[in-house]
Design goal:
The protein has two domains: 102 residues, Urease, subunit C, domain 1 (Roll); 289 residues, Metal-dependent hydrolases (TIM Barrel, Alpha-Beta Barrel), CATH 3.20.20. Strands 1, 2, 3, 4, 5, 20, 21 and 22 form an eight-stranded mixed sheet that branches. Strands 6-9-10-11-12-13-14-15 form an eight-stranded parallel sheet. A four-stranded antiparallel sheet has the order 16-17-18-19, with no helix packed on it. The N and C termini lie close together (9 Å). It has 402 residues and is α/β, with parallel strands linked by helices. Helix 6 links the parallel strand 13 and strand 14. The radius of gyration is 21 Å and the shape is globular. The protein contains eleven helices and 22 strands.
């Protein structure tokens, strides 16, 4: 369907139009234009359907490159329909695209879970679009394993790297590796050659080891501060290596619990907004009040706004991306434009899909979020189709359901 949203503030990492129009043609953005002034040089064409979005803020859809689930659904699963159910739920949080996070299993690589992710990617359903796979481990350091049981962990192996690439059928977009492990350097080189973004995380790497990993091709750091050596004045660790490398992006769990707001603010100041990738690291209980759920078979529950295992270990979050946006604005003092980039364009770069997602540009996928002035999500469009809307916005968008 071809339609226009008019009179909204249009904002992405590079654009902030106070009053503009965006023309959607099927799954793509056809045109974006300012409506300020009488002499706008290129007016958006008038399609049959025009929707007044006065007072609203339209941004690209959020891209979560590190989530384990939400809404009661796990992404580390052997049921492709569970991933599709998550995809239908996620737009209620502003998410229009995501990577399917797979973790470890006891004694082997997670073959069944990877095959399930591939099946979901081969035949996606409605809602948020799965973009590929994020394999968080099993090549991580025992000393910084966090909630990953020791039985899940493995040492990097060149032959196993080939097995992973074959199993994932071109869908492996991001992998978390502890670069100090024996065999990690060869694995990193091979993955980079295959076009996979490599992230260092769950790592006990020194500053020097982290620098070497970046020279090998690491371009991403998994949940900064969490499950890694701290930044100390005589042992600066991975965070200092990250800060010095202008092309490496760092994830930030923006719940204010995994990372103190002051440390969130410091990381943004240290890297700049253009290198922060906001993530949820959410588990199945995200978006559910008082839920009991599991992380790859381990029971988890919510204490003071974060998920914990029975032994008290903090695990993933119960954060949603719309709340992450509000937290980033409140806790780091960035502008809305800078915050939008952290949830859209920056993760698109990490997932290697920034040529078609993460911006409000002609030719890009029509993945949009519509917020009111209080930063409450009103509607989400995935590839031009309404995937979530409040009651008021369901009425406003009713013509799009025909």
């Amino acid at each position: 369907m071809r339609f226009t949203l008019r009179n909204a503030r249009l904002i992405d990492a590079a654009t902030d139009i106070a009053r503009g129009a965006i023309l959607i043609n099927g799954p793509r953005i056809e045109a974006v234009e300012s409506e300020d002034g009488q002499d706008a040089p290129h007016r958006v064409p008038q399609p049959d359907t025009t929707i007044d979005a006065q007072g609203m803020i339209i941004m690209p859809g959020f891209i979560d490159v590190h989530t384990h689930g939400g809404g009661g659904y796990n992404l580390h699963t052997t049921r492709a329909d569970e991933i599709r159910d998550f995809a239908r739920w996620a737009p209620a949080t502003g998410v229009t695209s995501f990577l399917i996070a797979v973790v470890g299993v006891p004694g082997s690589i997670p073959t069944q879970q990877l095959q399930t992710a591939v099946a979901a990617l081969d035949a996606p359903g409605a809602g948020a679009g799965p973009l590929g796979i994020h394999l968080e481990g099993p090549y991580i350091n025992l000393a910084k394993r966090g909630a990953h049981p020791p039985a899940w962990l493995r040492l990097p192996d060149e032959s196993e790297t080939e097995t992973l690439l074959a199993l994932t059928n071109g869908y492996l977009r991001l992998i978390t590796v502890a670069p100090e492990l024996p065999g990690a350097s060869a694995m990193i080189r091979r993955l980079v050659d295959a076009g996979v973004s490599v992230s260092m995380g769950h790592t006990d790497a020194t500053y020097e080891q982290a620098k070497e990993a970046i020279e090998l091709g690491v371009t991403h750091v998994t949940h900064c501060f969490n499950a890694m050596r701290p930044l100390l004045h005589r042992a600066p660790g991975p965070l200092a290596a990250l800060a010095e490398s202008d092309w490496v992006r760092g994830e930030l769990i923006a719940d204010g619990v995994h990372v103190h707001p002051a440390a969130m603010h410091a990381l943004v100041r240290m890297l700049g907004p253009e290198r922060i990738v906001v993530i949820t690291d959410a588990l199945a209980g995200a978006g559910l009040a008082g839920a009991t759920f599991d992380f790859a078979g381990q029971p988890a529950h919510v204490i003071h706004g974060a998920a914990h295992l029975d032994d008290g270990t903090i695990t993933g979050s119960v954060l949603t991306m719309d709340q992450a946006l509000r937290n980033i604005l409140l806790m780091t003092g960035v502008s809305l434009q800078q915050a939008a980039g952290m949830l859209t364009f920056n993760p698109a770069r990490s997932a290697s899909i920034s040529q078609r997602k993460g911006c409000l540009h002609a030719g890009y996928d029509a993945d949009l979020t519509i917020f009111d002035q209080s930063m409450t999500l009103q509607a989400t469009l995935c590839r031009g189709a309404v995937a979530y809307a409040t009651a008021e916005w369901r009425d406003r968008l009713s013509a799009l359901y025909a």
